[in-house]
TrEMBL record:
Name of this chain's protein: Chloride channel protein
Function, in words: Strongly outwardly rectifying, electrogenic H(+)/Cl(-)exchanger which mediates the exchange of chloride ions against protons. The CLC channel family contains both chloride channels and proton-coupled anion transporters that exchange chloride or another anion for protons. The presence of conserved gating glutamate residues is typical for family members that function as antiporters.
Molecular function as annotated in GO: ATP binding; chloride:proton antiporter activity; voltage-gated chloride channel activity
Membrane topology: Multi-pass membrane protein
Compartment(s): Cell membrane; Early endosome membrane; Late endosome membrane; Lysosome membrane
Organism: Triplophysa rosa (Cave loach)
């Protein structure tokens, strides 16, 4: 075989097996990804109009549901940067353009932060108002919610601070009576009616206008940030419908939160603004840097936690997170939080609804109940992920999934009917968390704070004394236990409905309820048994030693950690959310415990589980590849498959090329020297080939089906009467990633993860053997985990 004589170490340009020495001197200037000079050879001396010298419009773009090539995008960006830098000294205009280019990154994150903050404020205000609309209406000003309605009233008393003549329940308006069974039934009916109306409107808008607006959006955003393209997922329609339906879904009383969807809303803003700047609109990898910053802004406004948002973006959603993106995320989160603070949606001059201040320190003994709450959080997380995924899988495979509107209305009706009788489930979930977090003081009128003081047996609560619980507290405990069971069951069926639904708030509510129950139990234990050695050291009789609200906070963090498996960002979010800086150690203990317990039952969090359920091509960086397979075991074609579809560098006709493209569905084709030698030249993407052929047929005459197609620098020597050849060198990737057939798969998986590859070619002694794509790796991982590989792939 002749190619063995060729020196494999010569610099290789694809002009045949060996490069003539006089050609070597010419090389270098043309050895770029551009399209080299004109033609060579007698046939093409008719001065080839090499129209491919200018870039072909459309080449380098991607189809829907395809993965981007990170390496190629980074090269494109570097090329663009070099061009701008080389020109900037030519004129003042070019210098201004280079300044604009440098600042466009900061500008786009500023705009994203402004829009996210404004939309979050709008959503908060609208959701509060619509939530109160289920119970009644403000006569003095329709647009006021319950709390605002009674602000200006002089008739409120301390005990009944939420009752004022301006606020009328539906029973008072319709029946004219505030008390009695008739009014209760009327209020019950109106509550259910409004809940169903809101839910129906939300699901109808999602179904008709923007199917992508459903769910929390975080699994899809993780997938998009890893390089997958879902067109329209971050578009303007999705943004508009998601904003409107999020308000409706939260107001309908379903067991869902608005925090996850706010990340999706912020990413939509980031995507829309990135189209104003060519640096980001034309480069998919650069656009993902903006989306990372946008997701930080989303969490920043969802929880009023700017630093937590940056850490969330880093720990949970981002795939590629350079230092520059860290600064921009920080800035976007800052701008968004600033805008939200100026809008002041909660009227308490805070960024968050549940701001608490505890005054008692925690004691070492309390770490034991905190760790128990961590165990509960981990168990709940593992149970929730299994149950929710099983239900979602069932929804996909049965007829139930074909009627999303009916499903949403059923869940909303059950939720509303069960929720109304219990005051803890009737109120908005955020309000419930606020009440559970709050410390009992002389100003609290909540049922959870009805302690009998030792002094005089009255309801008064002297400052700083531990007190016995009254029947009020015990009935509150019962109601909370029922609310806990109700929330656990309803959240499993609600997450994954075709309405915008977040998971943060329901998980935190479940943890806060459990935590408050544990807190009250420990408090009563300390009250009745203050002579035990556990309490004797630090808890004097009559002193306020235990804060049940703190237990609620720790429980909330533990349950959220159990479901999402976040650690660092979660602790920071919770302490920014509540302002409880000195309680970082209990929070860390509970969150780490919940992660360990959850990981014992399964390594993936709820978002990874939903990514796998939907079959998105996502290589999780947290997963370890532990199998001892080699590249040749995974590559295609396998042993019994038809041979690999390849292109040769200069002896194919246009007709043959079009036949290969029409008969296969591959996304790209390796280009080789010749069928005999099988030596690799480069890789050409299917989309680029079709665009280049259409472009050539449109712009150049005499391109016919038996025109020769060549990928080399110079045209092959052709007979005088042959039709004009077509040069496709410009779309050839001259440096595709290659591994040998003996490379261990764990290294290949690492290369795919760290460089964000789409495909990798496998060679043996320099000859092409096969190709490995991201989907091949995912299929292989599924087979190794004994799953059906086809069931997990995105369809």
């Amino acid at each position: 075989m002749e190619e063995d004589s060729a020196d494999p170490y010569l610099p290789y340009d694809g002009g045949g097996d060996t490069i003539p020495l006089h050609e070597l001197s010419k090389k270098g200037s043309n050895y770029t990804m551009s399209n080299g000079g004109g033609g060579g050879g007698a046939s093409s001396s008719t001065h080839l109009l090499d129209l491919l010298d200018e870039p072909i419009p459309g080449v380098g773009t991607y189809d829907d549901f395809h993965t981007i090539d990170w390496v190629r995008e980074k090269c494109k960006d570097r090329e663009r940067h070099r061009k701008i830098n080389s020109k900037k000294k030519e004129s003042a205009w070019e210098f201004t353009k280079s300044l604009y280019d440098a600042w466009s990154g900061w500008l786009v994150v500023t705009l994203t932060g402004l829009a996210s903050g404004a939309l979050a404020g709008l959503i908060d205000i609208a959701a509060d108002w619509m939530n109160d609309l289920k119970e009644g209406v403000c006569l003095s000003a329709m647009w006021f919610n319950h709390e605002q309605c009674c602000w200006g009233s002089n008739e409120t008393t301390f005990a009944e601070r939420d009752k004022c003549p301006q606020w009328k329940t539906w029973a008072e308006l319709i029946l004219g009576q505030a008390e009695g069974p008739g009014s209760y039934i009327m209020n019950y009916f109106m509550f259910t009616f409004w809940a169903l109306s809101f839910a129906f409107l939300a699901v109808s808008l999602v179904k008709v206008f923007a199917p992508y607006a459903c769910g929390s959006g975080i699994p899809e955003i993780k997938t998009i940030l890893s390089g997958f393209i879902i067109r329209g997922y971050l578009g303007k329609w999705t943004l508009l419908i998601k904003t409107i339906t999020l308000v409706l879904a939260v107001a309908s009383g379903l067991s869902l939160g608005k925090e996850g969807p706010l990340v999706h809303v912020a990413c939509c803003c980031g995507n829309i603004f990135s189209y104003l700047f060519p640096k980001y609109s034309k480069n998919e990898a650069k656009k993902r840097e903006v989306l990372s910053a946008a997701s930080a802004a989303g969490v920043s406004v969802a929880f009023g936690a700017p630093i937590g948002g940056v850490l969330f973006s880093l720990e949970e959603v981002s795939y590629y997170f350079p230092l520059k993106t860290l600064w921009r995320s920080f800035f976007a989160a800052l701008v968004a939080a600033f805008v939200l603070r100026s809008i002041n949606p909660f009227g308490n001059s805070r960024l968050v609804l549940f701001y608490v201040e505890y005054h008692t320190p925690w004691y070492l003994f309390e770490l034991f109940p905190f760790i128990l709450l961590g165990v509960f959080g981990g168990l709940w997380g593992a149970f929730f992920i299994r149950a929710n995924i099983a239900w979602c899988r069932r929804r996909k495979s049965t007829r139930f999934g074909k009627y999303p509107v009916l499903e949403v209305i059923t869940v909303a009706a059950i939720t509303a009917i069960i929720a109304f009788p219990n005051p803890y489930t009737r109120q908005n979930t955020s309000e419930l968390i606020k009440e559970l977090f709050t410390d009992c003081g002389p100003l609290e009128s909540s049922q959870l704070c009805q302690y009998r003081s030792q002094m005089n047996g009255s309801q008064a609560y002297p400052e700083g004394s531990e007190a016995a619980a009254t029947p009020g507290v015990y009935s509150a405990m019962w109601q909370l236990s029922l609310a806990l069971i109700f929330k656990i069951i309803m959240t499993i069926f609600t997450f994954g409905l075709k309405v915008p639904s977040g998971l943060f708030i329901p998980s935190m509510a479940i943890g806060a309820i459990a935590g408050r129950i544990v807190g009250i139990a420990v408090e009563q234990l300390a009250y009745y048994h203050h002579d035990w050695f556990l309490f004797r050291e630090w808890c004097e009789v009559g002193a306020d030693c235990i804060t049940p609200g703190l237990y609620a906070m720790v429980g909330a963090a533990a349950c959220l950690g159990g479901v999402t498996r976040m650690t660092v960002s979660l602790v920071v979010i919770v302490f920014e959310l509540t302002g409880g800086l000195e309680y970082i150690v209990p929070l860390m203990a509970a969150v780490m415990t919940s992660k360990w317990v959850g990981d014992a039952f399964g390594r993936e969090g709820i978002y990874e589980a939903h990514i796998r359920l939907n079959g998105y091509p996502f290589l999780d960086a947290k997963e370890e590849f532990t199998h001892t397979t080699l590249a040749r075991d995974v590559m295609r074609p396998g042993r019994n498959d038809p041979p690999l579809a390849v292109l040769t560098q200069d002896d194919m006709t246009l007709g043959e090329l079009q036949t290969i493209i029409s008969e296969t569905s591959y996304n790209g084709f390796p280009v080789i020297v010749s069928k005999e030698s099988q030596r690799l030249v480069g890789f050409a993407l299917r989309r680029d080939i079709t665009i280049a052929i259409e472009n050539a047929c449109r712009k150049q005459e005499r391109i016919v089906l038996n025109s020769r197609v060549y990928f080399t620098q110079h045209a092959p020597t052709l007979p005088a009467d042959s039709p004009r050849p077509l040069k496709l060198r410009s779309i050839l990737d001259m440096s595709p990633f290659t591994v040998t057939d003996h490379t261990p798969m764990e290294i290949v998986v690492d290369i795919f993860r760290k460089l964000g590859l789409r495909q990798c070619l496998v060679t043996h002694n320099g000859r092409l053997l096969g190709v490995i794509t991201k989907k091949d790796i995912l299929r292989h991982m599924a087979q190794m985990a004994n799953q059906d590989p086809e069931s997990i792939m995105f369809n």
